[in-house]
Design goal:
Oligomer: single chain
Shape: globular
CATH topology of the largest domain: Butyryl-CoA Dehydrogenase, subunit A, domain 3
Helix content: 40-55%
Largest sheet: 4 strands, mixed
Structural class: alpha+beta
Radius of gyration: 21 Å
Bound molecules: coenzyme a persulfide
Strand content: 15-25%
Number of helices: 10
């Protein structure tokens, strides 16, 4: 087991207790019905989990990033859909508001999001710009004291239910990534509509939508940072977000391992529990080792972030390794369950479907490798 302080062990235990009582029993139904877990989000908010790193004076729980990762890990172990909903509110919405917002923006936008009265989302990707985030086309033209936004965004997690959008636009397409600007947009602003709702493989309890902007007027006072700061705001935010997704991946992998252990210690073939067949023992040893290695990378990235040290490389490493581990562990879990694993009865097929997205969103595994390699080249 990876060593944690007494405080962090208590935070994990509190998360575990809440998840076992409130989240795990509803997870299969949330997945099957593709239903946003509204009541669960309210319960998590009452524990401060919707604004984990935000100081209490702004409505948050004032905890460190390692605590945040432990909470996301536990929540995702119970329900990966709930895990990403909480993660997007914390690390992709509140974090940029807190880091880059001016005082009046912080006072206005943060408390309702941190208390779970409102939900947030992060809108960077477009039909033609996912990994190549500097090529976004959604354009904002300044007209006096507001911007006029036109364009289409997609793959927005929490898109259907969110009240506040951290939106990335270009204010000067000729400047590529240096023309990207970040705006805070409220749901209900005229000219802003939620488009197609994606029908997904996994994390089906969370919504993923398209956003359409047609002559949508956004006040200049809603700009986060200066014009052209948007790309760096997005990258900085994703460094923290990727830690959240690594934690989600670890939670999914731990759930798949626990379910498989339980099954293998009950199921018998050839006169003994399958857990005592060497082929299965080898799988369990590798599953547990890869999960602990993921946690080691994850907690190290958190500790660097909490210490104010650079952590871009470590965030990419933990996301890459934890996501690929979750996918691999979930695949082994189905194999251990045999035919039962391929049905919905034991829940490991949900782990398998949920794990896949962790290799894609907030930067694909290929993007994480680009980030890691670029840091290696800089260090020579
Ligand atoms: N923090 C702050 N600034 C950063 C940064 C980071 N982590 N990473 C890069 N930057 C800055 C660089 O310093 C550079 O600044 P200058 O223009 O002043 O030199 C600028 O951003 C451009 O950096 P770079 O040249 O590395 O950018 P690329 O266009 O090559 O993009 C990748 C690099 C592919 C890594 C980036 O576009 C990326 O992460 N894409 C994936 C986006 C993503 O995760 N999408 C999912 C959205 S959420 S579902």
């Amino acid at each position: 087991m990876i060593q944690l302080s007494e405080d962090h062990r208590m935070i994990r235990a509190a998360g575990q207790e809440l998840v076992e009582k409130e989240i795990t029993p509803r997870a299969a139904e949330t997945d099957k019905k593709h239903e946003f877990p509204k009541g669960v989000i309210q319960t998590l908010a009452s524990q401060g989990f919707m604004g984990v790193n935000i100081p209490p004076e702004l409505g948050g729980a004032g905890m460190d990033y390692l605590s945040y990762a432990l909470i996301i890990e536990e929540v995702s172990k119970g329900c990966a859909s709930t895990g990403v909903i909480v993660s997007v509110n914390n690390s992709l919405t509140l974090s940029p508001l807190f880091t880059f917002g001016n005082e009046s923006q912080k006072q206005k936008w943060i408390p309702p999001l941190a208390k779970g009265e409102k939900l947030g989302c992060f809108s960077l990707s477009e039909p033609g710009a996912g990994s190549d985030a500097g090529s976004i086309k959604c354009e904002a033209k300044r007209e006096g004291d507001h911007y006029v936004v036109n364009g289409v965004k997609n793959w927005v997690t929490n898109g259907k239910e969110s009240d506040v959008v951290i939106l990335f636009v270009t204010t000067d397409p000729s400047k590529k990534h240096k023309g990207v600007t970040c705006l805070i947009v409220e749901k209900g602003t005229p000219g802003f509509t939620v488009g197609k709702l994606e029908d997904k493989l996994g994390i089906t309890g969370s919504s993923t939508t398209e956003f359409v902007f047609e002559n949508c007027k956004v006040p200049v006072e809603n700009r986060l940072g200066e014009e052209g700061d948007g790309f760096k705001i997005a990258m900085h935010t994703l460094d923290g977000g990727r830690i959240g997704i690594a934690a989600q991946a670890v939670g999914i992998a731990r759930d798949a391992l626990d379910k498989s252990l339980k099954y293998a210690l009950e199921r018998e073939t050839m006169g003994k529990k399958i857990a005592h067949h060497q082929g299965i023992q080898f799988k369990f040893a590798d599953m547990a080792t890869r999960i602990e290695a993921s946690q080691a990378l994850l907690y190290n990235a958190c500790r660097l972030k909490d210490a104010g040290e650079p952590y871009t490389r470590e965030s990419a490493m933990c996301k890459l390794f934890a996501a690929e581990t979750a996918m691999w562990v979930a695949t082994q879990a189905i194999q251990i369950h045999g035919g039962y694993g391929y049905t919905r009865e034991f829940g490991v097929e949900r782990n398998f479907r949920d794990a896949k997205i962790t290799e894609i969103y907030e930067g694909t595994s290929e993007v994480q490798r680009i980030v890691i390699a670029s840091h290696l080249y800089k260090s020579v």
